[in-house]
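About this split. The held-out portion is used to measure sequence recovery: a designer receives only the structure tokens and must propose an amino acid at every position. Recovery is the fraction of positions where the proposal matches the reference. Here is one held-out target exactly as it appears in the evaluation file.
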């Protein structure tokens, strides 16, 4: 029964106004009723048992059906898992049996070559068996000649005849000789049998060796991308433009794995070298040590003439003699200016230039030592390409005195350096091995490094020149991050 929504008075069917208060009766429209009905139809109730207050059988049957479906699904999954396990067992079992059969077939006599171990052992056994009677006969004859009575007594005792008795007509000399031959023959037969029993044992190492070879599988290294294929020069130029004001620059990458290169700028053109003169100095010293002109133990006098880096900045060593190895290690590990200048004085500029140019590095032109103040119009020059290829030669073992092990130990600026901002290449390459040298000035920032990252090994050299050289190292950091990302990326299939 409907009631008035305003006063609560009962309403009759068809009333449009309340007979008590006169309020208009509002009934839901047919559209509203249809919407409500559709909502009710869309409702889905999930139950596995009937409601507590109702006993509708249909809800209980619905729950039973769902339990049956879950049980069937679990059973199917168990059957599938069992099939997979059976398949894996037969796959690995048949594979292992096939490997064992191959080993036995390889070691069998029907597959042995002319010089196989089994045939050689058999030939040795036959030769030894044939030689045994010949060797035994003279020995037995000598024994019977020395002790005829004792030999005859032994034969009679073996035949069950006491001394002095006649075995079927007497013990003659012919019977003694035949008895000696019989003993020799029995001994040679025994030796043949012993050697035949040892033959299988002699062939066992051959089977073991073949089995070891079949278990050892070569390890294949994952391919690495080639620098020429993945490095985009436009991206390098974009990083320089966004991170520096350099007016001249050379970026050169040499890929040791593929003997390929990528470059930005004319990387054969000489640039201001700054402290990267450590590379041609090290190259020259290694060349002279290898040809016998110098040795690592050659004594050199330390000369303090300019401020240094790292722990060797003091003048307390001035005038003292140290081996050449000390100066090379200190120069490479700390880029110490005093060690650099001392080596320039000892090796001479002319020698450094001539050794490097004779090796094909024509851009090398050292005109002065490192100085503070007036350079008198002189400077040091080298190209990014020549620096990279010198580092490649040193690392790949062109010289005995300075090789990859030496470079790993000393060819990197120490982490405790007083100027950590010079590490333009290193900050982003945390998982890589970076063997680097760097240098800077008011108008230049230079850095070179051999980088081992993933399966890639490459040399990256960056040389920037402009109005604010010291501030260009962030641009070099971005370049190093990009180059390392593309050089360690796995190549796509089919490339």
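Reference sequence for scoring:
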């Amino acid at each position: 029964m409907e009631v008035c929504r305003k006063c609560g008075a009962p309403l009759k069917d068809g009333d449009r106004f309340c007979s008590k208060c006169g309020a208009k009766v509002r009934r839901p429209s047919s559209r509203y009723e249809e919407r409500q009905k559709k909502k009710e139809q869309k409702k889905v109730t999930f139950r596995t048992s009937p409601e507590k207050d109702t006993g509708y059988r249909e809800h209980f049957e619905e729950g039973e059906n769902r339990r049956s479906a879950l049980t069937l699904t679990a059973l199917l999954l168990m059957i599938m898992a069992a099939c997979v396990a059976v398949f894996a067992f037969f796959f690995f079992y048949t594979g292992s049996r096939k490997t064992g059969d191959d080993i036995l077939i390889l070691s069998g006599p029907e597959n042995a070559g002319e010089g196989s171990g089994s045939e050689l052992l058999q030939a040795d056994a036959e030769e030894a068996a044939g030689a045994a009677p010949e060797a035994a006969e003279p020995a037995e004859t000598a024994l019977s000649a020395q002790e005829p009575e004792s030999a005859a007594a032994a034969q009679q005792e073996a035949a069950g005849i006491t001394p002095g008795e006649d075995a079927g007509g007497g013990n003659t000399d012919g019977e003694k000789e035949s008895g000696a031959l019989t003993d020799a023959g029995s001994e040679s037969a025994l030796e043949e049998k012993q050697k035949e029993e040892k033959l299988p044992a002699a062939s066992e190492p051959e089977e073991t060796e073949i089995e070891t070879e079949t278990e050892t599988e070569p390890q294949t290294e994952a391919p690495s991308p080639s620098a020429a294929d993945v490095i985009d020069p436009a991206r390098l130029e974009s990083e320089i433009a966004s991170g520096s004001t350099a007016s001249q620059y050379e970026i050169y990458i040499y890929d040791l794995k593929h003997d390929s290169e990528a470059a930005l700028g004319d990387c054969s053109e000489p640039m201001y070298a700054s402290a990267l003169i450590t590379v041609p100095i090290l190259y020259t010293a290694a060349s002279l040590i290898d040809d016998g002109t110098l040795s690592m133990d050659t004594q050199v006098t330390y000369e303090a003439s300019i401020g240094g880096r790292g722990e060797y900045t003091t003048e307390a060593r001035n005038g003292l003699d140290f081996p050449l190895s000390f100066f090379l290690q200190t120069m490479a590990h700390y880029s110490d200016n005093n060690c650099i200048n001392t080596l320039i004085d000892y090796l001479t500029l002319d020698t450094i230039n001539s050794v490097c140019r004779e090796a094909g590095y024509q851009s090398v032109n050292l005109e002065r030592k490192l100085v503070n103040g007036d350079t008198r119009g002189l400077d040091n020059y080298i190209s990014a390409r020549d620096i990279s290829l010198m580092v490649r030669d040193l690392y790949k073992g062109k010289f005995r005195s300075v090789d990859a092990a030496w470079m790993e130990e000393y060819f990197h600026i120490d982490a405790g350096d007083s100027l950590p901002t010079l590490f333009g290449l290193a900050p982003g390459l945390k998982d890589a091995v970076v063997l680097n040298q760097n240098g800077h000035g008011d108008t230049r920032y230079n850095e070179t490094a051999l980088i081992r990252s993933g399966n890639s090994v490459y040399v990256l050299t960056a040389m920037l020149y402009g109005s604010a050289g010291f501030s260009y190292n962030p641009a070099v950091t971005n370049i190093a991050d990009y180059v390392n990302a593309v050089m360690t990326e796995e190549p796509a299939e089919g490339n």
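Annotator remark: The CA atoms of residues 230 and 486 lie 6 Å apart.
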